Amino acid sequence: MRHTLHASAAALALSAGMAGAGGHLAFTPGEGEFNWDSYQAFAEATDLSGQDLSIFGPWLAGEADAFSNLVAFFNEATGANATYVGSDSLEQQIVIDAEAGSAPDLTVFPQPGLATTMAARGFLTPLPDGTDDWLRENYAAGQSWIDLGTYADGSGNDQLYGFFFNVNVKSLVWYIPENFEDFDYEVPETMEEFKALMDQMVEDGQTPLCVGLGSGGATGWPATDWVEDLMLRTQPPEVYDAWVSNEMPFDDPRVVAAIEEYGSFTRNDDYVVGNANDTASVDFRESPLGLFASPPACMMHRQASFIPAYFPEGTELGEDADFFYFPAFEEKDLGRPVLGAGTLFAITNENPAASAFIEFLKTPFAHEIMMAQDGFLTPFKGANPAAYASDTLRGQGEILTNATTFRFDGSDLMPGGVGAGTFWTGMVDYSSGAKSAADVASEIQASWESLK
């Protein structure tokens, strides 16, 4: 592609024919809602003919296929031979490979924790100069992404190592548009309106929320997402960061208040389907089904972007079910925070092709090709929203590009014994009414201390 894109639209037309004949590019060059100019400019500036590039990541099956489609365009543009390999045991394998001196050139980490550890051990190379400025200017809530990708090196100096690419959104509330229409309900824009809507639903004889915390051995995790979202809506992001790193103890009154705020939604029998003390016994995969009952068991369900996988078969998103942003308090003036997660690229074996791939990820084209395939969201403001494969993805993408703050799932950043242990069990104890928020927070803090 590098040799056929460098001239003009006529060159694109020529390469389109080549793609059709070869069948190795997922999208025909020059067509679709893609910024082909950015791709062409990258191709003209980058010659990696004959160079190999290995990329290791967590994506398997369809996600791996979608990313491999992007890699094919990189190879076509540069003449490189980049290959992607996915694994469901990346966390263990990348450490083994790095220690053996045989790490792949680029690694896609499913969360920052392991990347932080590897940076401290000298296994990562800082991203190309200027990447921080690029993120600040081009990603919504740009500083958030810089902070999430910045870790201390072996000497304790902070460096930007992680480039986030592919993000998901947790700050969503799902509902049935037809049910809202029946009662003339409007989607709330602020948390104050959200609470007023819940009260109106109760007055109308409806139940506002379906809540399910059950998840087998991981029961309780949905409640941690609630608390994290509410921490971002009641406290500045710096406080959230201090909480997640335990620079601020877990039993700080601000955390206790966020847990109690969660309880104000879910520990109220008027607001929750069934007995509010029993939410831990409701499987999180079954809890949204109350939205679809007739008459509806509940009117809303707060959950991340993955939950439609558990909606009734044949549900058409945007028609049968839709979502809105879990709103922020207008009175607290904390902007539009978004809670989520995502994957980040880091250079684990420095070479020109690895740095070039990071530069490739800065093109609108790289994001748009992924947006046109299912399951990819980006905070890149320069990417064309029309490229998204569906209105649902486009709507979630707009939540990201309108965010003023983005924070990673806090429990995923805490030590495993806390984030996937006492935080989960503590929220079950609180949700069932067995313990107070203050007692639960103190016990979680004690468990954290024991791990230090």
TrEMBL record:
Q: Which UniProt keywords apply?
A: Signal, Transport
Q: Which Pfam families match?
A: SBP_bac_1
Q: What Gene Ontology cellular component terms go with this record? A: periplasmic space
User: Origin, by domain of life?
Assistant: Bacteria
Signal peptide as annotated in the record: 1-21
Where in the cell does this protein reside? Answer: Periplasm
| Similarity remark | Belongs to the bacterial solute-binding protein 1 family.
**Protein's name in the database:** Putative bacterial solute-binding protein 1 family
| Species in which this protein is naturally found | Dinoroseobacter shibae (strain DSM 16493 / NCIMB 14021 / DFL 12)
